[in-house]
Amino acid sequence: MVTKNRQFLLAKRPIGLPDESTYNFVESDIPELKANEVLVRGQYLSVDPYMRGRMSDAKSYAAPFELDQPLNGGVVGTVIKSNHPNFSEGDTVTGRMDWADYTAIGGDQLRKVNPDQAPITTALHVNGMPGLTAYFGLLDIGQPKEGETVVISGAAGAVGMVVGQIAKLKGCRVVGIAGSEEKNAYLINELGFDAAINYKTTNDLRQALKEACPDGIDIYFDNVGGEISDAVFSLLNFHARVPLCGQIAHYNDTQVSMGPRFLTTFLKRSILLKGFIVTNYEGRYEEAIKDLAKWVSEGNIKYKENIVEGLENTPDAFLGLFRGDNLGKQLVKIS
Amino acid sequence: MVTKNRQFLLAKRPIGLPDESTYNFVESDIPELKANEVLVRGQYLSVDPYMRGRMSDAKSYAAPFELDQPLNGGVVGTVIKSNHPNFSEGDTVTGRMDWADYTAIGGDQLRKVNPDQAPITTALHVNGMPGLTAYFGLLDIGQPKEGETVVISGAAGAVGMVVGQIAKLKGCRVVGIAGSEEKNAYLINELGFDAAINYKTTNDLRQALKEACPDGIDIYFDNVGGEISDAVFSLLNFHARVPLCGQIAHYNDTQVSMGPRFLTTFLKRSILLKGFIVTNYEGRYEEAIKDLAKWVSEGNIKYKENIVEGLENTPDAFLGLFRGDNLGKQLVKIS
């Protein structure tokens, strides 16, 4: 039996891309439980682009990680010990837990996962936060209508893949933008996207989008920002909607990036843009999880995981998000 | 009795600011009436920034003006002759009519104005399109709540002045941005704005806004764009709303203007931005006109007009909008 806990602490707020000086990988005792707390042994943890924001101390939707404290994020794991009436030893649970072997956490911050319904890792993507993010961003802000054209940047990411599949369920034409032929082949052949554009090898992204979207673009689900968005914006239709979910092109910027001003287009075409974060919709998770679980179990939402072995490799798995390594959801198998 | 009609035709699409080569000022016969048409002698015409867009042939919400055809816009005038059952000689009417002494127009495109209720010129601003624009942009997109802070660019323009006064009626703190001390004194002393900033003489607009908005900015009603918006965006609060009504800083751009990318801020703070044009709300004009007329008659919405005499001076009155000459609604008294 393991008697020590390994944890990643935030050693230094990164400037630009995080590197090894960002983290401190330490051993400590397994935490003691307080009243209503549960001790969870992590099985899988999720690395997500938004975590880069929490490493900074700028004003944002999520509180910054604290220096010399554990980093944390979505984890699925097993209850080892429980001081909370709703949880017992052996339960599979998910919640925001440490980049660590063990986390002590209030039971009210955990959600039970049924391991017989779907693989437990899906609680970290299609049946979890990325799925919910796709669901609310597309359906609540995007308001897709049958026959409309939806363009997704970061289409092969954990959120983008779900967005595209829900948009197909709603009868839309779906065009993904991603960074490799392998990813694009997957989007088209496995997930049923109508077209996919490789922004790394396309000379004229705007022209490629124009050809892939003969009726213009009604919804642009943006995970990326930067020059990809520049190309999309000029092709948006009247009354287009832009759910703004991520700006990964800018998370490591060390100074303000400049780009073409586009608001005259947004004005002339009565375009809606809305930044959002999934927790805005906390009160409505139940309806969404139900829909997602149904679509996943029926095979209408497929998924792909990329699993790195070993807690110690978490920083590299996280960096991979910015290198565009991952096809599908990037997870770490803790041990 | 005048037997000739004077008209401004669009001679050439301007590049940058319009000049005398843009127009052709011609004499023609008074138009003949077809079935259901009404002959209106214009009394006042309105010049508005959006008309610059219609002089170009770029894709926009309003069809471009046609070359060698009359320019047109909001006019209030008197019925001279009517082939339409709803209108009789002597009626005061408003609608989209030519930059001309006379216009023949379908009766279904006219609205009657009651000259006993308010001065007829108000049908071109507080009781007309600019008032409706302010009303729907602020109330429908901005959704102001008591105690919130509203910042308005182009605050001394026809739309901006109404936005600020409605926001005060809704219990908000109202901060205007305009281009002269005279305008700002008017906003504060006559219209009850809480503060006003002169963007032409303020060295650090962002700092000035910060001081004028100690609780941040909840609604930014934007008529201007460019560097003024750059300064505002970084001060927007979580869940802020940006009704995008005008981008006058860019209407005469001859190439794409560059500016700082701001969407990471919009993402992190769940900010909504929506471009709009008043005709999106056509089905709801009646409720709005009723509210506006009530507020105007009770003195809760005040207004200021700047009237240029003579149809022949219309191009110069129009140019004045881009020079920032006007305090309040710019009108032309046709004869």
Oligomeric state, counting identical vs distinct chains? homodimer
Largest interface: A-B, 38 and 38 residues
Radius of gyration of chain A: 20 Å
Instruction: Tell me how many strands of chain A there are.
Output: 16
Q: Which CATH class of the largest domain in chain A applies here?
A: Alpha Beta
Q: What is the typical, i.e. mean, pLDDT of chain A?
A: 94
Total individual domains of chain A: 2
Q: Uncertain runs of chain A with pLDDT below 50, 5 residues or more?
A: none
Looking at the structure, the CATH topology of the largest domain in chain A is Quinone Oxidoreductase, Chain A, domain 1
| H-E order of chain A | EEEHEEEEHEHEHEHEHEEHEHEHE
CATH hierarchy: architecture of the largest domain in chain A: Alpha-Beta Complex
Structural shape of chain A: globular
Count of discrete alpha- or pi-helical segments spanning 4 or more residues of chain A = 9
Structure, described:
Two copies of one chain form a homodimer. The first copy, chain A, has helices at residues 50-55, 129-142, 158-169, 181-189, 205-212, 226-233, 263-268, 285-297, 314-323; strands at 4-10, 23-29, 37-46, 72-82, 92-98, 102-106, 111-112, 149-153, 173-178, 195-198, 217-221, 236-244, 258-260, 272-275, 305-309, 329-333. Chain A is an alpha/beta fold and 335 residues long. In chain A, the strands form three sheets. In chain A, strands 3, 4, 5, 6, 7, 15 and 16 form a seven-stranded mixed β-sheet that branches. A six-stranded parallel β-sheet of chain A has the order 10-9-8-11-12-14, sandwiched between helices. In chain A, α9 links the parallel β15 (305-309) and β16 (329-333). In chain A, α2 crosses α8. The model of chain A has no long low-confidence stretch (mean pLDDT 94). At the A-B interface, β13, α7 and β14 of A face β13, α7 and β14 of B.
